[in-house]
Specification:
- Chains A, B: It is found in: Cytoplasm.
- Chains A, B: Keywords: Aminoacyl-tRNA synthetase, ATP-binding, Cytoplasm, Ligase, Nucleotide-binding, Protein biosynthesis.
- Two copies of one chain form a homodimer.
- The first copy, chain A, is of the alpha+beta class.
- Chain A folds into three domains: 272 residues, BirA Bifunctional Protein, domain 2 (2-Layer Sandwich), CATH 3.30.930.10; 130 residues, YbaK/aminoacyl-tRNA synthetase-associated domain (YbaK protein, Alpha-Beta Complex); 91 residues, Anticodon-binding domain (Rossmann fold, 3-Layer(aba) Sandwich).
- In chain A, 27% of the residues lie in helices and 30% in strands.
- In chain A, strands 3, 7, 8, 9, 10, 11, 12, 21 and 24 form a nine-stranded mixed sheet that branches. A five-stranded mixed sheet of chain A has the order 16-14-15-17-20. Chain A has a five-stranded mixed sheet with strand order 28-27-29-30-31, sandwiched between helices.
- In chain A, a hairpin with a 2-residue loop joins strand 25 and strand 26.
- In chain A, helix 2 runs antiparallel to helix 6 and helix 2 crosses helix 12.
- The radius of gyration of chain A is 30 Å and the shape is globular.
- The two termini of chain A are 18 Å apart.
- At the A-B interface, strand 1, strand 2, helix 2, strand 3 and strand 4 of A face strand 1, strand 2, helix 2, strand 3 and strand 4 of B.
Chain lengths: 564, 564
Amino acid sequence: MKQSQTLIPTLKEIPADADVTSHQLLLRAGFIRQNFSGVYTFLPLGKKVLNIVEKVVREEMDAIGGNEVLMPALQSADLWRESGRWDKMGPELMRLNDRHEREFVLGPTHEEVVTSIVRDEVKSYKQLPLTVYQIQTKFRDERRPRFGLLRGREFIMKDAYSFHLTDESLDASYQAMYDAYSRIFTRLGLNFRAVIADSGAMGGKDTHEFMALSKVGEDTIAYSTASDYAANIEMAEVYDNYSPSTETLKELEKVSTPNKKTMQEVADFLGHPIDKGLKTLLFKADESFVLVVTRGDHEVNEIKLKHVLHVENIELATDEAARELLGADFGSLGPIGVSEDVQVICDLAVKAVANVTCGANEDGFHYVNVNPSRDFGEFTYEDIRFIQEGDLSPDGKGTIKFAEGIEIGQVFKLGKFYANQLGAEVLNDQGRAETLTMGCYGIGVSRTLAAIVEQHHDDAGIVWPKQVAPFALHLIVVNSKNDEQVALGNALYEQLQAAGIEVLYDDRKERAGVKFAESDLIGLPVRVTVGKKASEGIIELKERKSEEKEEMTIDALMAYVKTI
Amino acid sequence: MKQSQTLIPTLKEIPADADVTSHQLLLRAGFIRQNFSGVYTFLPLGKKVLNIVEKVVREEMDAIGGNEVLMPALQSADLWRESGRWDKMGPELMRLNDRHEREFVLGPTHEEVVTSIVRDEVKSYKQLPLTVYQIQTKFRDERRPRFGLLRGREFIMKDAYSFHLTDESLDASYQAMYDAYSRIFTRLGLNFRAVIADSGAMGGKDTHEFMALSKVGEDTIAYSTASDYAANIEMAEVYDNYSPSTETLKELEKVSTPNKKTMQEVADFLGHPIDKGLKTLLFKADESFVLVVTRGDHEVNEIKLKHVLHVENIELATDEAARELLGADFGSLGPIGVSEDVQVICDLAVKAVANVTCGANEDGFHYVNVNPSRDFGEFTYEDIRFIQEGDLSPDGKGTIKFAEGIEIGQVFKLGKFYANQLGAEVLNDQGRAETLTMGCYGIGVSRTLAAIVEQHHDDAGIVWPKQVAPFALHLIVVNSKNDEQVALGNALYEQLQAAGIEVLYDDRKERAGVKFAESDLIGLPVRVTVGKKASEGIIELKERKSEEKEEMTIDALMAYVKTI
């Protein structure tokens, strides 16, 4: 493509409202433009990368037997009422009426639509398992769209859905999809982790999020230094290798700790490390109260606590509730001597402590030389804390590190939720009707494009991995007033295209400095410069990533490009 | 693809609400399903054909230097106010509000969006001409969606826009686009005509509609039996080869024609053919009255009349107006002796008449032996009638025939309308700001799919042209309980796929009759049947179109498929 005949509107300045690198670079290099808040146009370069991402996704979906379909963006409100999501989803669900005042939804996902189709068209177990997918525009009315393509209101998703009679069949498709996702993100040049994630409220089971590691990520991942293990920190289990301390148990003693409220204040006052104290918090879990005990240096993970307690809502109790129930403020709570009506849960790490400190349920007093199994009433040990960097990995291999990540995909065993709501059944091999079970699998296609830029750039601009670059090669004529250079440029453009190389040819009458700067900004893998040595048939080749330059003859260039 | 692993829900019965062949067959053969009125899902087979159509469109757009982009479906209402279309378009424009009560449009086209981008990003004539295109979902809230994919509310369009400084540049891009469209529809196996069409209200100039000939078409085309000439009948010019009659002029005479009102009644009463009478109609054109005269066997074309008169609105005058202005009812109107205030326009064919009949502006009386140039006051000759079958073609080559057509594409010289409304200017080579001129070019992608089926089917089902078939070959095992047949079927499936043939393999445990009927319905170009002679390594090959069957060995089959 000749640059004079396309639209690559580069920007010298960083746009004021672009707050992350991918957003800045995609705007500056002329890949996208914002139409209005959270809604973007993909300009020619952006659309080319999008097409490449879609091609990779399509190939890997087809390879695992996915059937491509295309469902409508407009969805009937009635279907969303059947699933219950019409009421459950808030204003992020875009709703509209047609000319007859019938209500519609602009689809953010397609569970309802696809389940209704399968309900109507699939009658027998013989037609299962079935996997369909689509690459399609989705809508979500974000309250605060931001980060460019990372959190927009109109975006491109690959969404896939699989239907099964049995859990084993769902497990197999889930694994096939998991593997396909790993291949897709690897082919796209992304540094990613498949992390164990929270299955949320829809009654699903296993789920993994595919996270591109990036400092702009909105999620924190805990991963192992020595294995594939990775999980959202909200979900990361703690490895239970705690065994009782061998310390000699000392005698329990109540001491005065005037005005010492935080774990650190108490530890400093009593002269012991913070992990020699126990932290005690009172939670309201639905309608009950729960006393939760962790080591002083650990933090309670409320998601884990919710799972352990099988409750919908959990929140810290009020000071008033603590005083009424336990007789003290939050700074002096403890599990010793509490009423049997109050459930006590200790984190696993508490198994291994001895002669520690905890609140005495009396303002300004703590117990020292506390030993849980000796001193506490009835309680249980559960995994209820956040994992920490340096902890052993839950699979026993290596230790945990943290990273930030951008969610680029998710695989999810949905189970029977939608099939139940919409009544999707088939006849099994006994001729009896059975409710389907289901998986759903998403990839944020436009978001993936941004994630690639987050991972592949330098100070001068984007550095596209070869496999996703919009063009393989950037051809530049240094002096467009020099006939020899222009002639060689034109000839090379023809020759490279004839050799099957995708070339962006900067044939514009711009200064060389502008062309070079824009070329770095756009970030194609290879730059070929036709300059002063054009008369000798010599060009300069520069690799964008290594910044290595080399002068070579046309023949050497043509030999080189065959290796691209 | 194994049929057991995909979703091809065929129907034996014709769905009650499917009123045209393409709609019936695409439903029955399991290519599409309706989600609700005017909104469809493309099932795996339908999506495969859609992908093929899109690929052809993309290749031909790229070949003429089109730059693929992707603009959003959500468009700001403000842009539509700038263009004036927010008010001009009625309820077919889908409108919605976001959570902040800002108004949006779901794009039926993208003139506003693309013009706003070019306005903001293109600053110099050096960046022109520029052609961008996209393949994208559009929305249009049809009052009465019908004919399946032919008139839906959510559909796929290829829309392209070109931007220019000069009319000559626009002409060149228009011609390139016209030629590309011809190649696209030829490659898709369509019998089509590029017809001259009405440029409508937006102030544009040349426009051609690409019409797939079909009896379900909503438009009538006039085309030449001997040349490329084709036009919407509303636009077809009449070839002006009329020369004055050589008859001897007889004396004008007023005769009584009691209660004879229609042309036929008067002709019968006076004993002459209908084309020996003149038809006179009074029109109200904006605020003036115009008397329009045609030969008795011709019909006034109001669109031509509007163009001739340069008016916005035209309608037949009321009886009251005729009586007040001319002193008679409609059945007895004529152009002789009318006031000079009334404009008189005669159709070109009137040039060649002699000694004809016309109304006398007196109820129940006509003139006979009328000769216009002798008897009429001031008048002009204009081309104001509908062309008729049998007329000479306007290009002088052949005669005119009529056909019905489905509009599958349109090319349109929009001119400066949108650029003016949105203020899209560039600096010309003198450094002065000039308003852009613009072309727009559409292809109904999903509609094209339906048009192909309208043209390619028989009583048994669809007959896909090879180049758009979802699979090249349908492989069928007659008896799925026969191990030899199944083994050969499986082996052939592998072998054909390895040879790069796209195979649909009916591996289901269905009766042979069902498989054959569904195979004809789906309509792949070649069917390969593994039956009783499996043990001898012999299969049957059937061409869907010719219905020719042939038994052959596996080797012969593999040699044959190389020719596909």
